[in-house]
Amino acid sequence: EREKNIMTGVLSLKSKKIRDIMTHLIDVFMLEADQIVDDDLILSVHGYGYSRVPVYEKQRENIIGLVNFRDFALLDTESGKFTVRNVMTFYNRRYAKIVMADDSCYDVFNNLKKEHHHMGVVVEPDPTSEKDPKPRAIGIVTLEDIIEEMIQEEIVDE
Ligand code: ADP
User: Fold this and answer.
1) For the CBS domain, which residue ranges apply (predicted)?
2) Which of 52, 142, 155 to mutate to test the pocket of ligand 1 (most atoms within 8 A of CB)?
3) pLDDT tens digits for range 85-125
4) Distance 31 CA to ligand 1 centre (A)
5) I need a surface site. Which of 71, 85, 89, 121 has the fewest CB within 10 A?
6) 130 touches ligand 1 (CB under 6 Å)
């Protein structure tokens, strides 16, 4: 029975869209690029417990990169002069992998794996702005989200 479920899950990846399995933007824990990295910020990052935290500029839809919770480990917060942006660029994590909301889980899984990304920022082109065709984020997706679809089970994280 379990094997049958897994087979069904794997086969369904081609027809399932990323938008159907993503974590919606409203539920994503993120940081703003110009936030000062102080002890409270680091505490909240650890409190949420996510390995990766998207970084946005001004609006949450405008994700410009991501940080890893480990990036804050050796940081001296005393001086109060480091921003999230500084940390992000120091660790060279500026570019988050962009994935299209209507792409299939199958294609996105292969692309993320091929390019050694764990997380993708899900976007759809903004139909309202002609001048600024910059895509806006509507959510995130990680390899774990897709693997869960594949095996049709929740993965319980430690
Ligand atoms: P982690 O390695 O941080 O445990 P995973 O990649 O295993 O994260 O993903 C576990 C779940 O948490 C997935 O559903 C993923 O979409 C979600 N997730 C990952 N990072 C974040 C975040 N910063 N904010 C909200 N949800 C997240």
Assistant:
1) 88-158
2) 142
3) 999 998 877 667 999 999 999 999 999 999 999 999 999 86
4) 14
5) 89
6) no
Rounded Cα gap, residues 84 and 29, in angstroms: 14
Identity at 73, one-letter amino acid code: A
Tokens standing for 51?
């390995």
Per the rule left: phi > 0, alpha: psi between -120 and 50, beta: everything else, 152 is left
- Would you mind telling me the total number of residues written for the chain in this entry? 158
Q: Is 145 in the pocket of ligand 1 (CB under 6 A)?
A: yes
Residue 141 CA, closest ligand 1 atom number? 16
Judge contact between 115 and 97, C-beta under 8 A. yes
- Strand spans (E) along 1-135: 23-24, 31-32, 52-57, 59-68, 97-100, 119-124
Taking only the tens place, the pLDDT of each residue in 50-78 is 999 999 999 999 999 999 999 998 888 88
Q: Which of 144, 145, 157, 158 to mutate to test the pocket of ligand 1 (most atoms within 8 A of CB)?
A: 144
ipTM of the complex: 0.98
